[in-house]
Write a structure and sequence with these properties.
478 residues, mainly alpha, Sodium/glucose cotransporter, 18 helices, globular
Length: 478
């Protein structure tokens, strides 16, 4: 990296800190303001925040790396954004907004009891602390390879920066920085693609053609008939991608406090819905650009003669970033860190909200002060930072995202689906079934290795519902 690259990173990080400070001094904070902005955010900020919160370094490196290694199979998931938007906009958002819930899991207390609400909050906190640790590790690994800085130093540097503006600015700072971070990562991607295109006489067209000629157009060209196979062991098929991604997205947009909390910040139900459609559009565009980035990385490896020399796509991504012109490398790294920070800040803020509103306050019967709220925000941020030091041993980026992270969201989604039929299931069966289902899901995600990537979320969802159903029958007999 050149001096200009370090300067770009420094300017970006200082800007994020200043936003947190400015918002803190500009707005007197209550606990409700800290978590919901007192429902004052417009659709544009809500939409970009939802998108960037879910769009992490896993997407940045994992999606492009998947295209680099296997072709365009992952694009089969893009239409699912539109498919899942239908129930979210017609059912999920209206219900949450009209009921004036404080958290996503308050719904479960009204359907079942406090124990189920607390269980859901615990599952969410486990899910999102693991997720935060995963996406914090990825850019630090890349920065380590690019700069030579130690991984622990980078984790602390980036993590503490996020903690500062999240702790002082609350969800308002998180959402405003999310919007800024969207443009940082988007500009970084576009500039990187344009820069790489200039190294080929035919520009972007030649790069795309090179990828297609080497099989990266699959499954569309040449057409791969196996994508319509019902074999659950094939890595990615139309069915596994559509069904599995739908389950994973539905879990994200309906039972994930990190995303649902954004609905609570909107000025109106209309703003929340409009923002969600912006999330869909920006996610589809951004992921499509990442697919192009995968072609760019392949073209760069082809140009350098390094194809086949490394067994990890991440190494090719790092080499691609290193060879970009001065300034462009800084933009790409800034975009990668932006994607990371947007997920970590949301995770720590939402975990704090779930801990306080769904667990601590119901037990203590006392409302938490803004000072205590900030203390717990720091605690959850530090948990994510510490966990990130151990994530790298679990496998590739794409596998971590699909096998473990998406799998852990399924038990939560199961509880929400069961809530639709709460009159048929006892709270006791749902509570214990949720615990057993979460254990089952963790086991499947960690130890089953021959299942299509996207089916982990489906198996864990169906398994949890089945376990609750069986327990409900057994408890009725006794």
């Amino acid at each position: 990296m050149h001096s200009i690259d370090y300067l770009i990173l420094l300017i970006y990080l200082i800007s994020m800190l200043l936003v947190g400070v400015f918002i803190t001094h500009r707005k007197k904070q209550s606990v409700e303001e800290f978590f919901t902005t007192n429902r004052s955010m417009g659709w544009f900020t809500v939409g970009l925040s939802v998108m960037v919160t879910a769009f992490s370094a896993v997407n940045y490196t994992g999606f492009s790396g998947e295209v680099f290694s296997h072709g365009l199979y992952v694009l089969l998931s893009l239409p699912v954004f539109i498919l899942v938007a239908i129930p979210v906009n017609k059912i999920i958002i209206p219900h949450f907004y009209q009921q004036n819930y404080t958290t996503a899991y308050e719904y479960l207390e009204k359907r079942f009891d406090k124990r189920v609400r607390m269980l859901a909050a615990v599952l969410f906190i486990m899910w999102r602390t693991f997720w935060g640790a995963t996406i914090l590790y990825i850019p630090t690994k890349i920065l380590n390879l690019v700069t030579g800085w130690s991984i622990p130093f980078i984790i602390l540097f980036v993590g503490i920066t996020v903690l500062f503006y999240t702790t002082y600015g609350g969800i308002r700072a998180v959402m405003i920085t999310d919007s800024i971070q969207f443009f940082v990562l988007f500009i970084g991607l576009i500039v990187g693609i344009i820069s790489m295109s200039t190294q080929f006489n035919g520009g972007l067209v030649e790069i795309i053609k090179l990828g297609i000629d080497n099989g990266l157009g699959k499954p569309f060209y040449p057409f791969d008939a196996s994508i319509f196979s019902f074999d659950p062991t094939i890595r990615i098929t139309f069915w596994s991608c559509t069904i599995g991604t739908f389950v994973a997205f539905l879990a994200r947009y309906s039972s994930d406090q990190m995303v649902v909390q954004r609905y609570f910040t909107a000025k109106s139900e209309k703003d929340a819905k409009k923002g969600f459609w912006l999330n869909v559009a920006s996610a589809v565009v951004s992921l499509s650009i990442l697919a192009v980035l995968g072609y760019m990385i392949f073209a760069h490896a082809h140009l350098q003669g390094t194809l086949g020399k490394f067994n990890k796509p991440l190494i090719y991504f790092v080499n691609f970033v290193k060879d970009l012109p001065a300034g462009v490398t800084g933009l790409i790294i800034a975009g990668l860190i932006a994607a990371t920070m947007s997920s970590i800040d949301s995770g720590s803020n939402s975990c704090t909200r779930a801990w306080l509103s769904d667990i601590l306050e119901p037990i203590s019967k006392k409302k938490t002060s803004i000072k205590s709220t900030r203390i717990f925000s720091v605690i959850f941020g530090m948990i994510i930072i510490v966990m990130s030091l151990f994530i790298g041993k679990l496998g590739s980026i794409f596998e971590i995202a699909n096998k473990i992270v998406n799998g852990f969201g399924s038990p939560l989604l199961a509880l929400f689906i069961l809530g639709l039929y709460s009159h048929k299931f006892s709270p006791k069966a749902v509570f214990w079934g949720g615990i057993v289902g979460a254990t089952f899901s963790a086991s499947v995600s960690l130890f089953v290795n021959n299942l299509a990537l996207h089916y982990y979320a489906v198996v864990n969802l169906v398994g949890t519902i089945f376990i609750v159903f069986v327990l409900n029958l057994l408890l009725k007999k006794h």
